[in-house]
């Protein structure tokens, strides 16, 4: 479970670095990261 959470956090960080050109892009990144964490928790 810890590895899944770590993987989700790393994915989130890379998405935020790659896609944060605008505030809207940042919002989408945060939303997708939240979904990834939810999937990892299930």
From TrEMBL:
Keyword annotations for this protein, in alphabetical order, are: Cell membrane, Lipoprotein, Membrane, Palmitate, Signal
InterPro entries reported for this sequence? Entericidin
In the record, biological process GO terms are:
response to toxic substance
The keyword Metal-binding is assigned to this record: no
Listed Pfam families: Entericidin (PF08085)
A single GO CC term for this protein reads: membrane
Q: Which residues form the signal peptide?
A: 1-19
Presence of keyword DNA damage: no
The similarity annotation says: Belongs to the EcnA/EcnB lipoprotein family.
**What name has this protein been given in UniProt?**
Entericidin EcnAB
Q: Which organism is it from?
A: Sphingobium indicum BiD32
């Amino acid at each position: 479970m810890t590895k899944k959470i770590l993987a989700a956090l790393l994915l989130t960080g890379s998405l935020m670095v790659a896609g944060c050109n605008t505030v809207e892009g940042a919002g989408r990144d945060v939303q997708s990261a939240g979904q990834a964490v939810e999937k990892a928790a299930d």
